[in-house]
Amino acid sequence: MSMVPGMNHILLIHTRFDPVAWLIRLHTKSFYNHCAWILNSHLIIESTRGGIKINHINKYRNPLLYGTKEIYIKKLYQPDRLLINNLLTNQVRSISYIKRFFVLILVALKIKSKSNIPTCSNFIAAACSKLGICFNEAKPLQFIAPGDIESSKEVDND
User: Fold this and answer.
1) Backbone dihedral region for residue 155 (phi beyond 0: left; psi -120 to 50: alpha; all else: beta)
2) Cα–Cα distance between 23 and 126 in angstroms, integer?
3) Is residue 4 part of a domain?
4) Is residue 1 part of a domain?
5) Which three-class secondary structure state does DSSP give residue 82?
6) Is residue 33 a contact partner of residue 24, using CB atoms and an 8 Å limit?
7) In terms of residue numbers, what domain contains 23?
8) H or E element: which one contains 36?
9) How many CA atoms lie within 13 Å of 42's alpha carbon, on the beta-carbon side?
């Protein structure tokens, strides 16, 4: 089995000029307000306000609008990466306006829910947990912020 170090797995995103992004950063005390899973050199999958979507990675390449950082999970083998890719891509769907509003309230109040919170970080953490990868020892069904992923012992962000 080959490891895939150096191959980036997660894209951390700092969105500029967005009041919702600012609120997320304020409440999570993180520089980053969003994250996405890198499927390959061209595509990412992310949980957005509109649902779970596959987008081109260039969506976040404008430095005037976004600050980004690519990180990878230590000890992630190629078959495991493919499994996470499959777990995430099988979830492509829309999210209702009511559920989006509920998520914003949970983030604003820092409420830890026992149900799977459809945030960008929890989306990635839930798939990774199936391989025993937990970010900052947080349970994947509790609230996890992009900063938790960045500071985790599971990732190498140099």
Assistant:
1) beta
2) 23
3) no
4) no
5) helix
6) yes
7) 10-156
8) strand 34-38
9) 0
Range list of H helices, 29-93: 78-89
Report yes or no on 2 lying in a domain.
Answer: no
Weakest-pLDDT range from 10-14, 30-34, 46-50, 81-85? 46-50
For the chain, what is the largest distance between any 2 Cα atoms, rounded to a whole number of angstroms? 44
Dihedral-angle region of residue 132 (phi above 0 means left; psi in -120 to 50 means alpha; beta otherwise): left
Provide the token pair at 10.
């997660």
Under the banding of pLDDT at 50, 70 and 90, the label for residue 97 is: low
The predicted pLDDT at position 52 comes to 87
**Token pair of 141, please?**
């069904």
CATH number of the domain to which 24 belongs: 3.90.1720.10
Domain count, the chain: 1
Distance from the first to the final alpha carbon of the chain:
24
Spatial separation of the C-alpha atoms in residues 21 and 135, rounded to whole Å: 21
String of DSSP letters for 98-137: HHHHHHHHHHHHT---SS----HHHHHHHHHHTTT--GGG
- pLDDT number for residue 117: 58
Whether 58 is covered by a domain: the verdict is: yes
How much is the mean pLDDT over the chain?
A: 83
pTM for this prediction:
0.83
